[in-house]
Amino acid sequence: MSNGLAIDIANLTRGYGRGKSRVDVLEKLGMKVPSGSIYGLLGPSGCGKTTLLKVVLGRLIPDSGEVSVLGGLPGSKGCAVPGSDVGYSPQEIALYDDLSIHETLLFHGRLHKMSKAAVHDREKWLISFLDLPVSKRQVGKLSGGQRRRVSLAVGLLHEPRLLLLDEPTVGVDPELRARIWSHLKDIAAGGTTIIITTHYIDEAGQADRVGLMRNGALLAEGAPEELMKPHGHKSLEQTFLLLCRRKPRDESIEIDELGTSIASKGAGDNGGQVKENATKVIGELAGDWMKKDTSETGGDAIVGAAKVSATGVESESGTEEVSV
Ligand SMILES: Nc1ncnc2c1ncn2[C@@H]1O[C@H](COP(=O)(O)OP(=O)(O)O)[C@@H](O)[C@H]1O
Ligand SMILES: [Mg+2]
Prior knowledge:
The chain is of the alpha/beta class. The chain has two domains: 35-47 and 80-229, P-loop containing nucleotide triphosphate hydrolases (Rossmann fold, 3-Layer(aba) Sandwich); 248-314, no CATH class. The protein has eleven helices and nine strands. The strands form two sheets. Strands 5-6-7-3-8-9 form a six-stranded mixed sheet, with helices on both faces. It has a three-stranded antiparallel sheet with strand order 2-1-4, with helices on one face. Helix 9 runs antiparallel to helix 10 and helix 10 (271-292) crosses helix 11 (299-314). The protein is globular. The two termini are 32 Å apart. Residues 49-50, 91, 166 line the site of magnesium ion.
């Protein structure tokens, strides 16, 4: 790419449905991903990360805007994407339950025109690297975490130029997570471009570039240090929080309302207790965040933190973690 960018997106708009059932998801989104780098896409559940990856992959066609991936519009004539230049590990695991791990890798390897010997070599390495069970085990009989790792193996298998990893490290133990990041850094140094979405803020801080996404747009993107510097803050959490706070006040949701909204997802008669617990957790998390904030005080910090924390409560990865 002459401009050094593997992905260059401007004014991207994409939603779902039509008429009254239309949902706007991505709104005038811009994103720049340099070739041979790791881009960490960070944002609350429902902000549009998966939708964005699907546009980059060519599975969803943009409603409007400019999207260039490896030099072309995905799916257009002459563009290498979708195809063997890209490896995709989707958030929703899409594997054939009836196949063994070996058959799964062979199936995908053959689709990418790899020789059986090449698949065999990669299989040996991937099974050891990702702590997978013996390759004759049937995918349908694996645990959720093992299936996610098989899905990651499928994305890595053919050593594509572009890797799109949608929450590949959910539920992965910290030692393996560190190993995966170390490998991603190695292959990025060798020229592979990687976009990885994650709920783990610390993890995103290891990326070369981070995009902080909210409500279908990027609030900011840049190297983690570069993003944190202007705000005088020491962590990505605080930077994100500060950027969220810049949004107009009328978007704010008070803690009690958040409790109610979470309670409405709670089961029947137990709603009151759920609300109480949710409000308590949000309040505590917000308090924690505020304590860390040395430059500003007051309700804004609580409301901002509560909003971000609430998205963690609703996230797929459970209620325990503060995720954005
Ligand atoms: N196929 C679909 N049809 C309608 N709405 C969808 C569809 N897929 C996602 N959405 C909605 O789009 C929004 C963004 O979803 P998604 O891209 O999955 O966000 P994230 O990956 O950040 O959690 C959510 O409100 C979600 O409910
Ligand atoms: Mg998602």
